[in-house]
Amino acid sequence: MMQDCIFCKIANGEIPTDFLYNDDSLVVFKDINPQAPVHLLIVPKRHIRSINDLTGADKNIVAEMIMAGKDMAKKMSINDSGYKLFFNVEKGGGQIIFHLHMHLVGGWNK
To answer: Which of 15, 16, 25, 39 is surrounded by the fewest CB atoms within 10 Å?
Structure first.
């Protein structure tokens, strides 16, 4: 855990958050600045700074994130209407919080 990382604090329960999903490796919660009717963040509990910091040993966490995104889209009833899963990578790619996370957005035509 990084001491000053807001997502580490959220994942470890130091900042109260309503989790929509929580297991040994991931948490899912609503984005506080939503860009869509449904905008969730899928965040690994282990601190990984960005996509650029992934190693071969991180393949499972990325797969878990994608599967959690698919499952959350179904839970939020946007799986049939469509949704986006995406990562922002580094400042130039729109990353603001430097803890790996994936966005799930959708619900426009729900």
So the answer is: 16
The letter for the amino acid at 96 is I
Note whether residue 109 is domain-resident. Answer: no
Number of Cβ within 10 Å of residue 93's Cβ equals: 12
Output the pTM of the full model: 0.94
Catalytic residue among 39, 99, 101, 103: 101
Show pLDDT as tens, one digit a residue, over the chain (110 residues): 677 999 999 999 999 999 999 999 999 999 999 999 999 999 999 999 999 999 999 999 999 999 999 999 999 999 999 999 999 999 999 999 999 999 999 999 75
For residue 17, give its domain range: 6-97
| 3-class secondary structure per residue, 4-72 | CCHHHHHHCCCCCCCCCEECCCEEEEECCCCCCCEEEEEEECCCCCCHHHCCHHHHHHHHHHHHHHHHH
Instruction: State the CB neighbour count (10 A cutoff) for residue 80.
Output: 10
Residue 1 domain flag: no
